[in-house]
From TrEMBL:
Region (Disordered): 1-27
Protein name: PsbP C-terminal domain-containing protein
């Protein structure tokens, strides 16, 4: 396991989720979410993976999986462009240390706003394919809980391109 970056999620060893996990695939990028999560295609283009409902029926947050072609020549260039593109009421946007999920290096951008937190993990894959997983959580969700959710899903990352 790679140590977590300051304020960021750790990079766990590969995991083989059990039965009932929801699998999604886009441009050869595969992720899985635990059974209690809601997974759906949005606008016929992006997958949205929503955390389990709490006791009141609310979800802490969600992730959006996006893939596509990019002209970025490196992960650093992709991270720089992505950092500049963060929109919303976020007062603090910073790039944290890169992390590895199943041997793929992802940049990590984290932002904090009045009512939401935002984590972006992105990577430049073979053949000029970009993958980004945008995570958004209610502001009252603890960092520990956020990192647990992120690690559950990101540990299942696989590129079969």
């Amino acid at each position: 396991m790679t140590a977590p970056s300051s304020g960021g999620a750790a990079s766990p060893e590969p995991t083989d989720p059990g039965a009932g996990w929801h699998g999604v695939e886009s441009d050869g990028v595969q992720l899985k979410a635990p059974p209690a999560w809601d997974v759906r295609m949005e606008d016929g283009v992006h997958y949205v993976l929503s955390t389990p409902k709490d006791e009141q029926g609310f979800r802490d947050g969600f992730a959006t999986l996006m893939t596509g072609s990019t002209l970025a020549a490196s992960t650093d260039e992709l991270a720089s462009t992505s950092r500049e593109s963060v929109i919303g009421d976020y007062s603090d946007v910073e790039r944290l240390d890169d992390v590895q999920f199943r041997g793929t290096k992802f940049f990590h951008i984290q932002a904090t706003g009045e009512s939401r937190t935002y984590d972006l993990y992105g990577a430049l894959l073979d053949g000029g394919t970009e993958v980004s997983v945008h995570w958004s959580f209610a502001g009252e969700t603890s960092r520990k809980k956020i990192d647990k959710y992120i690690n559950e899903v990101m540990a299942t990352f696989k590129f079969a391109g």
